[in-house]
C-alpha cells in the first residue's frame, strides 16, 4: 500500500504532462487516466477512480468513432477484443465499491449501452448510409465487394491439387486483401458513431420501452482484482461473473444492477440444460418419451430468474451475453410449476440500444415474400461424374463429424423432405409459390435485387465449433485431398469464423465433394460471411427454419458471430432463429401456427411465436386428426417422404388425448431476435384453415 501511495504524485504529474503535450482528448491521455484510476482504487480511493474512468470512457468513445469509421469489420472486432478490458475494469469498480449507488450503476449501464456490440452497430449504420441516395456513387464498389466475398467463401471450400497448393493460399490471401481494401473504400468517415452511441442513454432507452415492459441486460465480465501485485504472483482477476441490469419502461430512476454470481457454474448448467432437451432435425418415427433431467433447469432458475423476478413485469426484452446467448430462457421453470413462457412474454435483442433503431426509416426496395425449402443438395451439372467412394473408404468419417455426415458416400447434408411440406404450407399462407429442389439456389438470396418482405428458409443449418487438432494439422500440411467431404467442410471453415455457420442450398454436397455445379447454383452454401454482404434492408422478417441458426462463436464485447449477427447486419428487422437441432414435423406445424397468429390474428412477431409454441405444446392427437392425420394428408406426405408418412400413421393410432409434441425439445429452440412488433403492411394471407 505504501508503494502505491508513493506512486500517486508521480502518476498525477505524468497525467498533467501528457494532458499539456497530447491534449485531453488523446487516447494516450485516456490510458493514463485509467492507470491513475487503478492506482486510486488500490489505495482505497474508489470515488476518485470512478471519476477518472468516466472521463477516460468519454475520450475512448471519440477514439472508437474515428477508428471504426475507417476500418473493416474484422479490424473493429479485433479492436473491441483488445480494449474490452476497460469496460470490465469499470464494471468491476462499480460491482465491488458502488453496487448500491444509483449514479454509479447508471454510469455502468450507459457504458454497456455504448460499448456492447458496437462493431455490429457500426456495420448497420454503414449499410443504412450506403443505401441512401447520398452515397449512390458507391453502388459499384459495394457490388464488387459482395462478389469478392462470395469468391473468397467458395475458394475456402475448394480442394486444391498438389500442383495448385502453392497458389491456393496465395489466392485466398489476395481475395481477403481485396475484400478488406474495398470495405475500407466503402467506409463513410463522416458517419457520426459517437453521436449515435451518446444517444444510447439509459434514460432514453427507458422512455422508448413500451409501457409495461422490462428490459434485462445481461453482461459477463472478468472481475478485476485491484489489490493484486503481479510481482507477488497475485492473479489480476477474480473468476468471471454475470450481472443483470434491470430497466423498467418509463422509469429510468428504477434501474437496478443484480449480481448473478460466477459465470462458470452458470455456463456449465446452460450446457447441461441444452443437452437435456436437444433433438436432431430429421424424422424420428418413435415419439420420444424419455424423461428429461430437470435439475439444470431448476438450478438455472435459482441462479438467474429467482434473483431478478421481483423487478419484472410480464413483458420482457432480454439481452443475453456470453453463454446465456444459448439459453432457452422461456422454458426455465417458475415457482408455480409452469414455464417462464407461460407467465411472461419474451423477446430478444443483442443490446438494449437496439430498441432505438426500431423507428428508423431505411430506404429500401422490397418485393414479395420468398419461401425456400428442401433444396436438392446433390444438384450437379449434367457432365459432372464425381466419385468419392474410394476416398471415403480410405478416410472414413470420424464420429465427431457425424452430426453433418451421412452414411452415403461423399454426402454431408441429408435430404429434408419434411421441409418441402412446410414450404408448401407456408407459401400458401403467404400467397406465393415455394422454391424447392433444384430451383432452391443460393443466388435467390445472395444476389437478390430487392429484399423480400419476408424470407422463410427451411433447410439444413449448421454451426461448427472448435476445429479438432487433427484437422488443424491436416490443414497446415495441405493434406486436403485425403479428407472426406465433411472433414474438408470443417477445414474450409478455418479460414474465417464467419464460414463456420450457414445454410445449405441446392448443390452443396456436389461442391463439397469436388464436383461441378450448374453455374447458376454458385457454391450451394450461404455462409454467415455471405449473409453479411447481402441487402435485406426493408425485410421485416427472416425465418430460418433450420438447425442451430442462433449459435455462433462467442466474441468478447460482441454478440455471437454467426447467422444471427449477419442477418441483423444485412438489414433484417427481425430474425427467427433456432438454438438446437429441430424436428421436421413439429417444426412444420409450429411454423404454420406462427404465420397464422402473425398474419390472421395480427399479433406481434414475438407474441405470434410464443402462441405458436404454446399451441404446439398443447396440440393433441384429436386436433391433429382433422388436418395432419387424415388419410389424404398421410398420402400427400408420402409423396415427399415415406418416413414422415409412417410417422403420421403411427401417431394416428394413438390416444386422442396424447400430446406428441409436449416436450420443450420440439418447440423451445426458436427465439425472436430484433424488433418484436407486428407487420406494418400486412400481406393478404390465404383463407386457410383456422389452426385453433
TrEMBL record:
Alphabetized UniProt keyword annotations: Coiled coil
Domain CHAT intervals: 311-675
TM stretches of this protein: none
Coiled-coil region(s): 165-192
Superkingdom per UniProt: Bacteria
UniProt name for this protein: CHAT domain-containing protein
The species this protein was found in: Microcystis aeruginosa PCC 9807
